[in-house]
Amino acid sequence: MTNNLTPLIYPLVFIAGFVDSIAGGGGIISLTSYMAVGLPAHMALGTNKFSSSVGTTVATIRFARKGHVRWDAAVFSFIGALLGSGIGAQIALRIDERTLSLFVIFFVPFVAVFLFVKKDFGETRKDLSQISMLLLSVLAGFVIGAYDGFFGPGTGTFLIIAFTQLMGLSLMTACGNAKVVNLASNLAAVFTFLQNGAVYLPLAIPCAACGLLGNYLGAGLAMKRGSRIVRPMMIVVVGLLLAKVGIELIGRGGNAL
Predict the structure, then answer these.
(1) Where in the chain are the domains?
(2) Helix 130-150 and helix 155-165: axis angle, to 10°?
(3) Residue 154 carries which DSSP code?
(4) Which of 4, 28, 135, 172 could be a cystine partner for 68, CB 3.0 to 4.6 Å?
């Protein structure tokens, strides 16, 4: 099922976990890697969810132990993400993915410019009421969850932006909350993929170990360096997302635009 490129996937999954624990978006690297070594699309998705869930668990624990999770906002965002993800998946069955790809192509550069020019990203705090915080958490979870169910890449990055810019959470708390939401949705997906035999365990298990190490080191670096590492890494992730979508559009025949 895999090919002679398989040994290369282990350092790539490590890098994906490292990036994901800091800024989200590691799936852009790992999912592409699984498909490059010969896994069919659904098997690649399932294997990626399995290995990334292990790493995300470690990153979540590290952020939580340091007090970088606001649990009420995280839980309500997860509830919204569950609802949104289901709707997004239904939309995916009815609309050509190229439509959303085109939206991402035009939307993502604005996100990149925002991250580049906003030097105080994640440092501005807002004093929201409890009700406002929970409502915004559900809304952000729902919208980003719908995106995740329909398309997916960069979900963690967009969650961090939502938690900082809409809800005024500190950058580290936003990272921790994003991990909680990602972990919950990943675990739900893993069980589905396992039940349907769409996880290639001979590759998923060693990759999970690589992702675990990457997430552990990345989470520690994020908490140590703060915005000095998170903000540049998010710009890198947004750039990777833009490149991925652009390459996919070209690969479909170059007539998307």
Answers:
(1) 6-251
(2) 160
(3) T
(4) 172
